[in-house]
Design a protein that fits this description.
single chain; 174 residues; four-stranded mixed beta sheet; two-stranded parallel sheet
């Protein structure tokens, strides 16, 4: 299993103890390289981007530099497919059975990239009204992405921070 931290806050990287140090290759470096090279990423870059933590779980880390990804992707050719192009390299097929991509809680081009590269989505949702509105917007975005990625499915909606009150119960029922 490979985990990719596509959130500039880098919480997955921190949680997995794979925070990048100076000189480490992050997902932003891979995105930049894929934008600048017609053939995608150099296999050495892919190899050096993957970090393994003490439990043996692999991760491609993120850091605050990923906050510039939307600007970099804005002018890229086929910008919504950059992450898919990175992950289509044989390196990943040879070394990993599954890839989990942690995304920021927005619908920017980075998240669209993740959806274009994915086969399935697990959506964590708080049982609050604003979160429900966000879920509906995400479902609309997924429906649009499915036109170009028909294999994309919603695997689960994972409720978290559930409180036992009427509001949570009504959202849970929906």
């Amino acid at each position: 299993v490979l985990c990719i931290d596509l959130d500039p806050q880098g919480n997955l990287s921190t949680y997995m103890n794979c925070e990048p140090r100076d000189g480490d290759v992050t997902i932003m470096e891979l995105i930049s390289e894929a934008i600048n090279r017609k053939g995608g990423c150099d296999p050495d870059s892919l190899y050096h981007a993957v970090r393994q933590n003490s439990e043996g779980v692999c991760c491609i880390p993120s850091d605050i530099s990923l906050s510039q990804a939307d600007m970099a992707l804005a002018v890229a050719f086929s910008r919504e497919k950059i992450v898919k192009r990175i992950l289509s390299h044989p390196f990943f097929e040879v070394h990993f059975d599954y890839c989990l991509i942690d995304c920021p809680p927005n619908l920017g081009i980075v998240v669209i990239n993740a959806l274009m590269a994915a086969d399935g989505v697990i959506i964590p949702v708080q049982t609050k009204n604003f979160a429900m509105k966000g879920l509906l917007m995400l479902e609309d975005a997924i429906a649009q992405v499915q036109q170009d990625n028909p294999s994309l499915t919603i695997e689960a909606v994972l409720l978290n921070m559930v409180r036992r009150n009427r509001n949570s119960a009504s959202i849970e029922a929906a």
